[in-house]
Amino acid sequence: MRALSTQRPPLVAGIALAATLVAIETLALYPLGEAAPSVSLGVVYLLGVLIVAIVWGAWLGVATSLVSAAAFNFFHIPPTGRFTIAEAENWVALVIFLIVALVAASLAEAARHRAQEAEQRGREAGLAAELARILLGAPDPPAALGPAAQRIAAAFGLPSCRIVLEAVGGDNRSAAVPLTSGEQRLGTLLVPRAARAAGEAARPALEALLAAALEREALTREVVETRALRRSDEIKTAVLRAVSHDLRSPITAIVASADALASPALDDDERRELAAGVTREGARLARLIDKLIELSRLQAGAAQPQRDWCSVEELLREAAASAGLGPEQLKLVVDRDLPLMHADAGQLERAFANLLENALRYSAGQPVSVRARVSGGRLLVRVVDRGPGIALADQDRIFEPFFRADGGHSPGSGLGLAIVKGFVEANGGRVHVESLPGQGTSFVVALPLPEHAPVAG
Question: Do 215 and 238 share a structural domain?
């Protein structure tokens, strides 16, 4: 792009053009003199004066007007061939021509300056618009400083330019133009020492845009932090709710059973029943703690999968055993010759166990159906229960931690499905829910299959 300061053509070219125009105009007056008086033809010289004044400035235009007046006097005002004037009216014509030529040169110079100023303002406006696009369009203002500096260097024709968000000084080769907003120091514009004027010209627009970009970044950071704090408060509230209910219930049952076991009035059957209750509630408490630990690892990004070849059928049977499903409670259908998965078997076993445990909780005594097959280059596992279904309004949030359908009256801690989603996605898969109220629920897990995966033996 051209620099903002318009450069005039070389002076030698202007002098040569002025001499050429004066010569051409002098020759052109000879045939014109046959049709009109010579003294009235001096206006022809004004064309050359205007051209020279517009391009090279007023002073060369004035010089051209003086040379034109001399040529007009010497060649066309009687007596010709001498710098003398015989009649008074010719003096008047020459003086009027000279005045008009000087005024025309001055007006041309003023018009040239106004045109240059308008062109410069247009280019400065274009530069400001481009800087606004770069600085305000970037999500990270420091990353936009390099492109903005390159744009300024191109606009002013500078060999180098740099913008830094700190107060620095210049050196032997560069000049430091401070960028401020009120009393606040925003940064520094570093330009070549000889081009400090260009840096000062770019300074106002750059200061305003840089201040807006930094203020927007600060506001965005505040919004993000506010949302994070709000989300953290929501999670803390949910955790406290889970602790106050889901952890307290088994602890209360264990304490009550332990107190009852100390009573001498109990017979052996009652003691065995209370001991079984302690074991059952202790296992429930252990599962809840395990889920909290697994969820915290997922949210911290610490659950990196340890991949190996594994069979989905074996994982589903291990998950069923872990979830406490007997043979009569599980209807498992697995297609023949399913390929092996390259995934973390432990994580997927925990994900399927949580799905089966959730399905068993809502199956109303009916068997849980599980189907595994290959479709579209993916391994699909569908877990179906015959429960009451999930309302459409709750399906978008069913995988959120601590969320429970039906306003939190559903059994469970609200952690299992969040862990399912975390472990499945950690292994490159996806999980979604399909449900209609009163018609049961299907959870569909889609896992990627590598090319040329071996088939389970």
Answer: no
